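Input.
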Amino acid sequence: MRSRLLFLSLVICGILAAPGTSLTGKTASAEEAEPPPSTIGPLITDTAVPIGQGNFSIQPFWQLFVDGGRFSPNWRRVSSNGDFYSLQVPVQFNYGLTPNLELLLIIPYIHNWARNANLPASPGVRSADFDGLGDINLYLKHRFLEETASLPTCTALAGFGFPTGHHRHLNPANLGMDLMGSGAYTFTGGLNLSKWYRPVYLYANLWYTVPTTATVAGNQIHDRDLVTLNLAAEWVLTRQWALLGEFYSNWPAGNLVGPRSQQPSRAVLGIVAGLEYNMNETWSFAGGLAVDLAGKNTPYHYSPILTCKYNF
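Output.
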């Protein structure tokens, strides 16, 4: 599986870096004088171009996860024995430390609730809800290669996750709705790429996340390392409007550090279709629908997403 992911990442880099004509027939050299437009960026895939030294932005997301069931260990769709929902509102703060170095802080609010549940862990309890803070993540993004006619923007990413989400003293009567975080510190390293082929903006992320051992509800858990592969394309229609398409995925991996994980292998793959309105240099808006297409040992969701971005 690792070799396939490596091969796929090399193919992506090759596509983004390939010189030649754009979708409008112009050559890459002719487009060097025509900079890419200012857009809000994808809904899930991260961007590669830094915000700029001294610039600051705030971007909240509103994402409603509607549980459609579960993916079984053999990738089949099965019932989740209830109706489960999660409103997640991560607020993203970006600040440009230098022309090529960006600080990114994500603070999420989560509200989970369940209806018509029929779970063996808490017989007789049909509904529950719980809300609170999720795990906070802090990232540094350093652009080490600016986009040229033949090469994409290349940005290295390094980040830490902090177990601020509720994960101790869980109550079975809450039907799992009070689990707000992983309970583990995490380190993520990876690469973000982007390339402007007029009128399409292409993006790619390849990240690797390593968790520490966590204590969740009194049990010690060491989860598997995680590989994240995201792809996105913005089709710029006008100076204000753009269509958005994305592919997102998370894949399990072996543990680089710590004990070997005894947790079940989980994976998910999905797509996003969306629309952007980039009003001006200060305000941008976007919305879309994310659909989990395949996976194993995890719930699958249909998730409408709304976001707005304010640049200072």
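Residues 1-11, 19-33 have pLDDT under 50 and may be disordered.
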